[in-house]
Amino acid sequence: MLRDPQHNRIALTTCRSIRKRIRATRQSLTPKEVTQDGAIVGLLMDKADKTARAVLTLVARDYSEDALVLARSLAGLVIDVRYLTAANDPDRFASYRATGREARRKIAEQCGFAPPDAGAPDWEDVKKRAKRWTQGGAIHERAKKADCLRLYEYAYRHGSSFEHSDAWSLLTYEPQNAKVRDNVSHLALLVVAYALVQAYRAWAQFFGVDEKPTQEAIKKEFLRAFPAGL
Q1: With contact defined as beta carbons under 8 Å apart, do 199 and 193 qualify?
Q2: pTM for this model (two decimals)
Q3: How far apart (Å, rounded) are the C-alpha atoms in residues 144 and 121?
């Protein structure tokens, strides 16, 4: 079914509203002092907000395929946020930090530089933790444990066709199929709205925020633009 451009304009407005509401709630209710793990959650939420804004900009300018690529990236980030906050398990955060440290170390060495923490004595543990986080199929397992399989199946895995330039993803570049871009835009907007709602739930759960008015408001806005859900 081809999407109506007017429907996408409504969905775009809805995504902007959801993003704005979540951002305002975070600014007003985030604790003044947070733990190291809490800081990670906050920074990931900041990145989710920025990526969502980028997707909405691309959709508004008719860069549908590129928007879906970024929406897939947002989905992956939100899966990680949900996984990190789904259990009171500091070990998950330790493995997540280890993955980042290992990635920075590899790129620094590749470019001929020493990483900032090159002298740290825990590199063997870092390598083991990073391998567990990134090994094949790990993101699917994180999605399953965080109850995010829909986000994985419909956004992350499906979006890989556009991410990796599979032949199928080039369909919309053919002149006779240009109209299909409205569907791609719709999917990108749906992923953004759903991912932001899931990210907000993770943030609220982690910081013990019971902000029911915000939860009810974003749920109503989401269902008004996407009644079928994800």
Answers
A1: no
A2: 0.90
A3: 33
User: What would the DSSP string read from start to end of 107-161?
Assistant: HHHHTT---TTTT-TTHHHHHHHHHHHHSTTHHHHHHHHTT-HHHIIIIIIHHHH
Segment 142-153 mean pLDDT: 94
Radius of gyration (C-alpha) of the chain in whole angstroms: 19
Residue 1 has pLDDT above 60, yes or no: no
The single-letter code of the amino acid at 54 is A
Token reading at 216: 């009810």
- CB neighbours of residue 33 within 10 Å: 5
Q: Which long-range contacts (CB under 8 A, 24 or more apart) does 129-136 make?
A: 129/94, 129/95, 129/98, 129/99, 130/95, 130/98, 130/99, 130/101, 130/102, 130/103, 132/95, 133/95, 133/96, 133/98, 133/99, 134/99
What are the backbone dihedrals phi and psi of residue 178, each rounded to the nearest 5 degrees, phi first? -60, -30
Count of other CB atoms within 10 angstroms of residue 177: 11
Provide the pLDDT for residue 175.
82
Domain boundaries, the chain: 5-86+146-225, 89-138
| Contact between 142 and 96 (Cβ < 8 Å) | no
C-alpha to C-alpha distance for 146 and 158, rounded to whole angstroms? 19
What does the alpha-carbon distance between residue 87 and residue 29 come to, in Å, rounded to a whole number?
Answer: 21
